[in-house]
Design brief:
Layout (H helix, E strand, L loop, with lengths): L9 H17 L4 E6 L12 H13 L2 E8 L22 H14 L6 E7 L7 H14 L3 E5 L3 H11 L3 H12 L4 E5 L5 H9 L3 E4 L1 H7 L11 E4 L9 H16 L9 H8 L1 H6 L17 E4 L15 H8 L5 E6 L2 E5 L6
Parallel strand pairs: 1-2, 2-3, 3-4, 4-5, 5-6, 6-7
Antiparallel strand pairs: 8-9, 9-10
The structure holds zinc ion.
The site of zinc ion (ZN) has 4 residues, from strand 5.
């Protein structure tokens, strides 16, 4: 990603995002929560111009977007270390950041398919006092809050060294201090099981990105039944949600030497791909299920093909989709009543 920042401009980011969003639509993704921190093309003129590139790219493709505007202020838990030149494209001070987010939120009110959430990049990049402000802002404004968490053991080691606690303990303290917020942590690969259970008891969504975590060699989180799990594509080198769902289950099967850990059967994985994602993005009253007064977003999966034809009328259809299919079986993708992708089906 850092290499793509050379001479980054509005046009370049618009084109990267438009291509990725189009690929997402064709993979059956109707809503994207974009964890976005490349804000400024000009590091001297910090005007968040690149955020507009993401919003306009989503509008150009028709995908539903929750822009998770991400605070990134520090290079590490040793707050005296300077950001690199490339990281300066991310930088903002928490107060100017929140003024900007409030303005942006008001500006997109008229957009049907764009809403705003907040992300704290990580405990490395966001001071714990600044996290207080983001937390309270999200609670007051009823906005989702996302944050990278414990993807690598080093983050826990550094956090212990500078703050005498794990990053998840920082979040647990915020729950005690400021009450509930719609929080989603991303990764949790090395989170201690007791801390993870306390976070999920507070309603925290666990965003797992199995393909990326496998690609990077991160590790497999310790999941449990009743966790509110959602899935992320993260580095986007492979965009296939059915595969992410399958790998989520396979990771747990391999880790625990059984098939029942965290109840990741096909029906629960379908919920993870729909209602749980909507909840994590603050859209649970709008999308994620077919219901009166909900927006009409859907993906259709073709059953008239070699993979699924024997399962078309079977109780095992969900199982067959999750554990056998990929993007090839995606036939229609519809957002807010508008078909964005329709595969031609050839028959004799
Ligand atoms: Zn990540």
């Amino acid at each position: 990603m850092y290499n793509l920042l050379d001479n980054i401009s509005y046009d370049k980011l618009f084109s990267y995002c438009k291509g990725t969003f189009q690929e997402m639509i064709e993979a059956g993704i109707t809503s994207v929560g974009e964890f976005h921190y490349v804000h400024h093309s000009d590091i001297l003129n910090k005007n968040f111009d690149l955020d507009k590139a993401v919003i306009n790219a989503a509008k150009a493709t028709g995908i539903r977007l929750v822009l998770l505007v991400t605070l990134y202020t520090y290079a590490g838990l040793d707050r005296s270390v300077e950001l690199s030149d490339k990281q300066k494209h991310f930088k903002s001070h928490v107060d100017e950041f929140l003024i900007y987010v409030k303005e942006l939120k008001n500006k997109v009110v008229k957009e049907e398919l764009v809403t705003i959430g907040i992300a704290a990049h990580s405990i490395r990049a966001v001071h714990e006092d600044d996290l207080d402000k983001l937390w309270q802002f999200c609670a007051n404004e009823n906005m989702p809050l996302h944050m990278h968490l414990e993807e690598q053991p080093q983050e826990i080691v550094d956090c212990q060294k500078f703050l005498n606690k794990d990053p998840s303990e920082v979040l647990l303290e915020k729950f005690d201090k400021f009450g509930k917020v719609n929080l989603t942590g991303v990764h949790f690969s090395f989170t201690k099981p007791d801390l993870l259970r306390k976070l999920t008891n507070n309603g925290t969504n666990l965003c797992i990105c199995p393909t990326t975590e496998g690609y990077l060699g991160d590790g497999i989180p310790t999941l449990s039944t009743n966790d509110s799990i959602v899935l992320g594509t993260d580095c986007n080198n492979r965009i296939c949600m059915i595969e992410e769902a399958r790998l989520l289950a396979f990771g747990q099967n391999l880790k625990y030497n059984n098939r029942n850990n965290a109840s990741l059967d096909a029906n629960n994985l379908m919920d993870i791909l729909t209602v749980n994602g909507a909840r994590s993005l603050g859209l649970e009253s709008k999308i994620g299920r077919f219901q009166e007064n909900y927006d009409f977003d859907f993906v259709s999966i073709g059953v008239n093909n070699v993979v699924l034809s024997n399962f078309a009328n079977s109780d095992e259809l969900a199982d067959a989709i999750i554990f056998s299919c990929d993007n090839r079986e995606v036939v229609n993708v519809c957002v807010n009543g508008k078909i964005l992708f329709a595969k031609k089906i050839y028959s004799d």
